[in-house]
Design brief:
Blueprint: E1 2-8, E2 11-17, H1 18-21, H2 28-35, E3 46-51, E4 59-65, E5 70-71, H3 75-87, E6 94-99, E7 102-108, E8 113-117, E9 121-125, E10 130-132, E11 135-137, E12 139-144, E13 149-155, H4 164-175, E14 185-193, E15 196-203, E16 208-209, H5 214-227, E17 235-239, E18 242-251, E19 254-263, E20 265-271
Parallel strand pairs: 2-3, 4-6, 13-14, 15-17
Antiparallel strand pairs: 1-2, 1-20, 3-4, 4-5, 6-7, 7-8, 8-19, 9-12, 10-11, 12-13, 14-15, 15-16, 17-18, 18-19
Length: 279
Amino acid sequence: MRFWKMNGLGNDFIILNNMEEHLPVERLPELARRLCHRRLSIGADGLMVVDTAEQGGDFKMLFFNSDGTVGEMCGNGARCICRYGYETSLAGEQQTIETTAGLVTGQRIDRRTYKIRLNNPTVIKLDCPVKIDGNVYPCSYIELGDPGLPHAAVSFPGLRDADGGDVRERGRKIRWHRVFAIGANVSFYERLAPDHVLAKTFERGVENFTLACGTGAGSVATALTLLGPCSGKNIRVSMPGGDLFVDVLTGDDSVESLYLTGLTNIAAKGEVTDEDLLL
């Protein structure tokens, strides 16, 4: 199997082209668990599989978390897959990708910078506080696309200087909180300036913080735009892996379009030779 290893600000992925590999879809979760293991194989936050389009897009993206669970969509992954599509001639500078959560459009800005239109929010609950260990955290709940990718955007003053282990444990507890029927990705955030936010996302399927989360950045920016503190224009979301930029276009108290821009990186291209991987 030929693969690419890419990352968007440290949120890293293994990419396989199933139009060439012809892998059975039912085996892809197992493949994700194996290949994404950081000590036993290549290692990544997720596996992305490119396949033939079925709804008029340039190609289809199947996304699996490192634990083998299906991901509805991945913002940084979609930016990386856009670059993959352009550089392998599957699509041009403007492209449309089919995802489990719906169609995602992408645009090449320059060699490494890609901009995508995220799936629009289908569920928005701006006032959805959660109580953990006797503490109540202000929270907004947002689902992107259909079926929805769930995100909890949690205000966390002092996040920059907070103890990492403590924040991780809070993220784990909120991720499984009963108020979220299907669980949630948890993005803690702290406003640093009117349109500048620090954020860290505890991701489902990875069950830990990742260096960056595109849909998490989009959800935080959406909540802060609708709540009022942010303008919705070129919001800088600083994550451990670097900066993402989000534009939230609103109308009549709803979100009409949501855009995510940031760098991509091709870390490696190669061949899977894992001798313990039997397909």
